[in-house]
Amino acid sequence: MNGNLLIVGVVAAFVVGAAALVAVSPPPASETGEEPLSTAALGEETSTAARPLDPANDLLFKAKFAAPPTALAGTTKFTDSFTVDRDYNFLEIGTGDEGVWAPAVNVYKIRVYDPEGTLVADTDWSGGLFPWVSLPNDRTWPSASVVAPAHGTYAIEVELSAGLTAIVSASGIAGPGADFSTEDILGKGTFTLSEHRGKVVLIDLMATWCGPCKRAMATLAEVYESYDRSQFEIVSVDVDTDETEEDLRNFMQTYGGVWYAGFDDGPRFGGTVSKGYGTGAIPTIAIIDPAGNWIFRHVGSDITADELRAIIDGALASA
Fold first, then answer.
1. What is the mean pLDDT of residues 122-131?
2. Beta strands 232-238; 200-206: pairing state
3. Nearest-5° angle of CA 106, CA 110, CA 116?
4. Which of 158, 165, 223, 303 is buried deepest, with most CB atoms within 10 A?
């Protein structure tokens, strides 16, 4: 899989409130023992030995970069690298910090370059960080995906204002997407992922109370109308199984969703789709190619229709 690389990263400053790009779960209800969306990171160490048809999530790189607090003038820059020596469907670049809020004057940038020196991931959180980017135990938050990464050495550049810390990881994802089924609340019957081989499938992890999920619907609708149903399908999966079918049906009708929509199985925020594709925030988009391989993931509502179409077109062309 030494094809072209394609990156969709987070390049805008994040803010909290009405304009936030992702949402996290409500606080758990202590009397029921419910848990919020998991913030378990990618990048758990796994064997790099190829296991045909099995998913792979290989931690290729993880390091902490800390700008000294005395560097009051300008920023501190760091460089590092990691190597890709096997085929992956995509690389996922993760970022975290140690709970430092960045005022508008601060700089927080992570860039990744492929073996030919091309910029393939550009994450810029300058001017303010998510409070939930500060994850426990040096965990990282998915911030960019590199599709069909070439083999070779990737360079990392980190630029930080004084006193800031960045934790950067890179994980290689390979293998098929996790199969699942959900009953469509709009009356189209049961959606089963494995029954849609030959198509590109976009999986939209969402909940009806999620503001960024609402904003993402217009983009999804535009992409949905760009393709014939023999080529492409969308399924929205409500990961908050405490919601009702009426909640989800009203959401889809209000925001123009005419594709499949149903609920995750299992407990709230803990079903097959949440475990297989979730990031700890919604909306999360996962894309499956016509062969059933998981080839892309994006967190947030900032991705454009053109960016999604580029990934979908590439998957269709490679089928």
1. 69
2. parallel
3. 145
4. 158
Question: What does the alpha-carbon distance between residue 21 and residue 301 come to, in Å, rounded to a whole number?
Answer: 5
Count of CB atoms situated within 10 Å of the CB of 228 = 7
63-83 pLDDT, tens digit each: 999 888 875 567 899 999 999
Give the angle subtended at the CA of 154 by the CAs of 122 and 14, to the nearest 5°.
20
Domains of the chain: 6-174 (2.60.120.380), 181-318 (3.40.30.10)
Pairing mode of beta strands 294-299, 232-238: unpaired
Residue 91 has, within 13 A of its CA and on its CB side, a CA count of 34
pLDDT recorded at residue 100: 53
Mean pLDDT in residue range 173-191 = 95
Q: Could you identify the residue written with the tokens 């910029």?
A: 119
Q: Answer whether 239's CB lies under 8 Å from 198's CB.
A: no
Pairing of strands 260-263, 232-238: parallel
Neighbours of 225 (CB within 10 A): 9
